[in-house]
User: Fold these one by one.
Assistant:
Number 1:
Amino acid sequence: MSKKKKIIATTAMLLAITVSFLGGQTFSKYVTEIKGSGKAEVASWSFKAYGENEQTQTVNLASTVNDSTLLNNKIAPGTKGSFVIRIDGRGSDVGINYNLKAVNETQRPQNLIYTCKGITYPDIEHLMAASGGTIDANDPEKVKEVVVEWLWPYETQTTSNPAELIKNDAEDTKDGQTISDYTFDIVVTGTQVIPSTANE
């Protein structure tokens, strides 16, 4: 392929990148706000992946809360929520390896935990690192979903020691008083799968 064709192909791939927001109301670049209405609501983001590209999405956990009793759109001990990341490989004629990472995390509550596919993670970075995968060129399901659930337990205690509960309650109180806006960015990187040859 000539250099000119590669530039045209790369430009076409970049133009094809779209980020669609399903549900909610956009209140700033790449941030979706979901307002509680007495029923569980799930924020959802879609990353279109063609060839080699990278997209970033900012997540504000307050917009993903599954609890209409939340005060002033802030998370607090006893709240939980979820969001879905969709990696969309439709329109690609080649396989795609995708990786996820969390960056620019701000003001994370100490006792907040994340769960994906039944596995609990101590932070969003570990969950994202474990959530990559592949969309094969002939895969009938070209859209992969990563469902992320989070929980800030009302009480955090892993042992029978009452001092642990007292310490964690103090941490929750401190976090509740000082944390005003917990956000992080999710970066999804799609890389073309190198085709194997018949001789391999």
Number 2:
Amino acid sequence: MGKNSEKLYVTQSEWSGEKGQHLRSKGAFNHLANAEAGFKPLPFDCCALSLAPFENPVTVKETGTVYDLINILPYLKKYHSNPASGNPLSVKDLIKLHYHKNATGDYYDPVTFKTFNEHTHIVAIATSGNVFSFDAVDKLNIKAKFWEDLLTGQPFTKADIITLQDPRNPRNQNELEFIKNRKLVSDKEAEEVLNDPLGMINVNATGGASTLLKKISDKQNEDKEANDGQVVDKSHLGKAPEYFPKTGKEPASGSLTGVKAYNAAKYSTGRTAASFTSTVLDPQSRNEAALIDEDELMFQEVEKLAGARGKDKAKGKAYARIVTNHGSLNVELHCEKAPKTCYNWLMLARGGKYDNVSFHRNIPGFMIQGGDPTGTGRGGESFYGNPFGDEYDRKGSYKHDARGVLAMANAGPSTNTSQFFITYRATPHLDGKHTVFGHLVGGMDTLAALESIQVDKATSRPMRTIKMESIQIFSDPFEEYKTRLAQRMKRERGDYADDERKARMKADRENNRTTWWVLLRMKCPINDNRFGTNLGEKQTRAQPAIKDGDNMKELLGGTGGGGVGKYLSLKRPANPDAGVPSKKKKDKSGFGDFSSW
């Protein structure tokens, strides 16, 4: 039989868990237990105080918790304790950590080259601050009983090994002392410390962070001397970035109302519409042309050479010579089909990035690969700084269809850097995976010599050194484009000094017009220095008008002087209001060519 006390609703005791045998309350307890047991640990590259990625990581030997230096300093000034354990802590106890990054920007072990992740057991050496994986330290230090740092050779003991992350024993962030006791630092207190981070620190004290703090002190002293006592405006530090900066009275370089930039697009930036539809932006009534990226505009111009024929067909190609220690390889680059890839390769070659770089991988019957400055196959950086995209999906792109094809090596889609390879045969299975940007036009005998060099079958590394001594560039359409652009800009912009000189000469011609008819009427020699060639200034309102009683000698220069008046008659007409005499017939003789003068 059913119980009379069975309710059709959840009672207060069931909600509170006072009687834990009830199914509803038991489920609630299970949910809380699972939430506590399934917590997610803090990522290894984040500060335990700010929960954000660190820039200047430091740690404490006691707990191994990682902090950012700019976050731990305000906390130590206020509480003088370890945020993780609550034990007393000073700045000299901080240990500066030295993380290492690979070519892709990921943290990794500098000995085993394995990338760190949430499953890696990470440790640090207290004496040097270098960060390694525990596997490397365990095999090369602990088991081998070799108690020296693997990078610097500094001696250490087993007690100097600090565990930063242990995936088998993760730390619960909620159990840290500063979270349980809510030890917080206000923004004002943090700002005061950051404005003067060395006010509480003895930079001469010994400790892992002393070197870093000494550098900060020296940098502040240099800035103080450079400012020479001037007050530095720091009001911009706490402001959000202005995505649409205010426009002044002068039009911008890309303005539709001013002088257009060479890379100005046919469409505007859209700021005018955005300013009228958003209350955040200041109203703007002038359209500004959007600016196309300079490199993208250059690539578009070079791509237009793809349809050229005859002599202009070679304008879209680049030609270079790879000088190796076994001979030379002449290559032709398809700049019109893979402009971004070719420009990256040419700029790296011009910068000497390929000089004395070895080919680290050689597989006879397949290809030879190089371009990694580290020689490991895991390094290299593009000219753009970051890996760039593939160009094998363009219309008319070249394929791996012959021996001597030049293509980019990558670690996956859109991961091109500086490494490239040259094929020993047609490799159609690489189409759609690697960008072909050139092929050999000379040096096939050198390529055959490279293929015949013995290699290590386990690593495909050649037994004899194969390196690029230098790269000589004979033709480059990108440099030709830059030259044409500079000439066009010079024509459009003009030489300012020359324009000023032309304007001055034009003004002089307007002001120094020779009055030939006056010279002829006055029967004055042309080279008479008493008679100027400048026309008289226009009479202004301030000058008095000539009246009947005025002395004409004084007005026209007087007698005996060098003025114009000495050549004019001083007699005034008897009747000023007399009619104008009839116009005489014009003489057809004219001045001619002045040969009769």
